[in-house]
Amino acid sequence: MGTDYVHGYTAAETRRLTDQARTLADLLHAGTQYEAGARVLDVGCGVGAQTVRLVTGSPGIELVSVDISEDSLAQAKARVAAEAPNAQVEWHLGDLLDLPFEDGSFDHLFVCFVLEHLPEPQQALKTLRRLIRPGGTITLIEGDYGSAFFHPRSDAAQVLIDCLTDLQALAGGDALIGRRVQPLLAAAGYADVRAWPCTVYADETLPHLVDGFTRKTFIAMVESVRERSIAAGLRTPEQWREGIRDLERAAEPGGTFHYTFFKAVGRIPDGAEPCG
Amino acid sequence: MGTDYVHGYTAAETRRLTDQARTLADLLHAGTQYEAGARVLDVGCGVGAQTVRLVTGSPGIELVSVDISEDSLAQAKARVAAEAPNAQVEWHLGDLLDLPFEDGSFDHLFVCFVLEHLPEPQQALKTLRRLIRPGGTITLIEGDYGSAFFHPRSDAAQVLIDCLTDLQALAGGDALIGRRVQPLLAAAGYADVRAWPCTVYADETLPHLVDGFTRKTFIAMVESVRERSIAAGLRTPEQWREGIRDLERAAEPGGTFHYTFFKAVGRIPDGAEPCG
């Protein structure tokens, strides 16, 4: 979180997150619908791409959206005002590891694309647990850059994907966190943990996904670290030219692209002490 | 095919294929049900693991099962006799690139875990096309060893997976073929091609898949090339010890495993000349 957020707080990044949500919304939010009246905490809402989906997908919830970036929070407010003007959202600027809400004061927590940026995701999940009432749930969604593979294969493209993973690690995060959401939730003390892959596969017969995912989500995500990686001496402009050219081939006719997000749900047992 | 079949014709391999089919049958055969009376060609039936599913999943079809290995074909016959005794299967020993059947004499072709072993899969698909009547279909199923990722991560385990991919390439095949089934079918002249991933994800909350897939399918598949890779000097016994130990950690509580098969269907246009 904060200034180490690996993708950067740029307009391009804002658009990428928006495109991602619009393309992947059905995939990522499938199965997530909260009961009317439920008090839900949207942890690390960023620019609000998922927040809009939460309020439109679960009408009547009381949503509290938290982020550590004042600028992101302002963008999220504007987005919700524009796209879901009737939604009631309480906005909170703050660190998810130090939130002022009372124990057990939420029915559900929603944590999407947040843990990948944290140096201690398991500890964060433990810290968040106290906020959920007995019987309430937490939902995690994370990507895993190690799940990306494509045709035609290309070492030059892989070099760029590895660069993004390396930068995430240098910033204290884990770009390969998706594969371990189940063990993370279980080790943090949640019950009834279930995890499953949400796979995106795109080829020329699926032009919406080629454009919305391969190009505007994945390649855009890799592109978001280009300048930083060159400035840090991790990759050369020539490596970027070759790698992006090859990734774009996967979005052309005859190319294919595969990526997996992971989603997991855990529960606080009925009758548990909320501060666990 | 033939003696270069990378997994080897061993009892362990036969059991692996059986376990794979029993565990993955619902996943791989979902959506494949042929109309009663349809004449279906089971191309490269091997030891019959999928053949049993074809005759039980599509009652009343006329199935012709072909393989190039006499020994595999004998095992397939015995398996069908034991597991689907009422099924009518016509068995044929022969090379899928040189089959004696008339043009357009099949309604559907089913080709599962076969193309990965062929040096020219696109040419094979073109050759097979003439066998299908106008309006008939071909179904492909292939794995992709590049889709395997797991927790805890391990370079030692990856070294073994790469070994299997290398051996497959040395034998003229492509262990990473799953990602390109759609372009292969399209380039071979099939119409209305659709492809999709069939993802297996296993963690401790899914003990059936941990045992049936992670251990008895994937790790068994990697193990199947141990002796050959050591004999060829590609990997050392110590590398095998470390790599298999790490893969087994992915099957223990706290571990996770992900693998993707790809399935694709193509069609011969109505009114097309069957020999295209």
From TrEMBL, chains A, B:
UniProt signal peptide: none
Record-given protein name: Methyltransferase domain-containing protein
Sequence ranges assigned to domain Methyltransferase type in this UniProt record: 41-138
Pfam families xrefs: Methyltransf_11
GO molecular function annotations of the record: methyltransferase activity
Gene3D superfamilies the record matches: 6.10.140.1580, Vaccinia Virus protein VP39 (3.40.50.150)
InterPro entries per the UniProt record, alphabetical: Methyltransf_11, SAM-dependent_MTases_sf
Domain of life: Bacteria
Keywords for the protein's UniProt record, in alphabetical order: Methyltransferase, Transferase
Gene Ontology terms: biological process: methylation
Organism: Kribbella sancticallisti
